[in-house]
Amino acid sequence: MKYNSEELKRLDKQFIWHPFTQMSDWLSEEPLIISRGEGNYLIDVQGRRYLDGVSSLWVSVHGHQREEIDQAISEQLSHIAHSTFLGLSHVPAIELAEKVIEITPRNLVKVFYSDNGSTAVEIALKMAFQYWQQCRKPRPSKTRFISFINGYHGDTIGAVNVGGIHLFHRLYKPLLTESIKVPSPCCYRCYLGKEYPGCQMSCLSDVEEVMERHREDAAAVIMEPLIQAAGGMLVLPPGYTKRVRQLASKYELLFIADEVATGFGRTGALLACELEGIEPDLMALAKGITGGYLPLAATLSTQEVFDAFHGEYREKKTFFHGHTYTANPLACAAALANLKVFEKDKTLEKLQNKITSLSEGLRSFWDLEHVGDIRQLGFMVGIELVKDRDSKESYPFEEKKGIKVGNEARRRGLLIRPLEDTIVLMPPLSISHTELGEMLHIVYESIKVVTEE
Ligand code: PLP
């Protein structure tokens, strides 16, 4: 190593601006610098090992340094690292597209590549907009989007436009042609003051009312199927997503499923849409697509959407969109290997027991006085900490309880990253039962220490 750990820390603070990070805090704290990964662990420059409790931000599927994926990348590297996808094609992208279409809902037939979740979403939004401008019976007034409070679709401007997280999105309002927002179906803090299942999901009538009102000026509705992830791991009531999909069809809106967080096994199924038998018009995939190795994303479309972009060159119906690293061959090779490992390891089959163990392990967390809610969908968990369980009163923002729990867990050898005061657990699907137990133990102790201090 060119620099020792102290020099690296100094240089990081001198030169780097980190994402979603208050840099004043960063500069006054001890930065953690990772040097390698091994299975479900990350190892820092001083050789300390940490269990990767959030899969390196929701991407790692089979763990780090998985031999088959490493090899696939090396093998691809011996052919070519990158060639443009504008006007050319290449082998791994073709093989991957065939595979992706095989494993996703039947009505999705085309793959448009990009390189991260936000771009996958931007592309879906632009496709939906353009579809209505040039489909067989154009509806040029359909230009807006319906999206959910507490929804999150990325940080680029188009994605922020359909985002609904006050903390992240509020400031950028003047930049946006804001989307039409519908309430979050968050049961813990139901805006109607009702309880599931007695409520019979009556919040859906508000969604329907908005869709009906905007059927002439809205192009699409976008949502994260089954769980609003970055919004605080808010698990939607069963059947809710499917109903929104049906309403979208009823009011002639395209339905965009953002599976960036939920895709590739996170929910216990390969895709969340499978759990409710949903066929979206457009789907955004990213994060776990390469097993957490390289940046790659895909926006999938139906034949009908695709057909609206056909025409004579002079008609200018082309989808004028593409990124320099679209369909990077190394990333496509990694994604193909990732999908092969799913089959070889029977990842989804083995996951089911681990999901049950996770649910069982989480039960004891109710003993902790400041645990307000525990939400779980497959391998996606949110433990919401509150100042007062009865009133559901949150801690003051500046108390940084979630961050403190994260810091405490780190001292104990586990890396997690909260969403405000919701402690997020998203371990790699490859985590062992023993490691799962270790993770839960550390999280329990960390919450206890921080909330009882
Ligand atoms: N959509 C969802 C549902 C996400 O959870 C995220 C990221 O967390 C994104 C989109 C944005 O993905 P990226 O960070 O790769 O741009």
Physical arrangement of strands within the biggest beta sheet: 4-12-11-10-7-5-6
Named once each, the bound ligands are: pyridoxal-5'-phosphate
Name the beta content range. Answer: 15-25%
Low-confidence stretches: none
* C-alpha-based Rg, rounded: 22 Å
Number of helices: 16
Q: Compute the separation of the termini in Å.
A: 40 Å
Number-wise, the strands total 16
SS-based class: alpha/beta
Task: Give the overall average pLDDT.
Answer: 97
Task: Tell me the layout of helices and strands.
Elements: H1 5-15, H2 23-28, E1 34-38, E2 41-44, E3 49-52, H3 55-58, H4 67-77, H5 91-103, E4 108-114, H6 117-134, E5 144-148, H7 157-161, H8 166-169, E6 180-182, H9 204-213, E7 218-223, E8 227-228, E9 234-235, H10 240-250, E10 254-258, H11 272-275, E11 282-285, E12 297-302, H12 303-307, H13 329-345, H14 347-363, E13 371-377, E14 380-385, H15 401-411, E15 414-415, E16 422-425, H16 433-451
Parallel strand pairs: 3-15, 5-6, 5-7, 7-10, 10-11
Antiparallel strand pairs: 1-2, 2-3, 4-12, 8-9, 11-12, 13-14, 14-16
The chain binds pyridoxal-5'-phosphate (PLP).
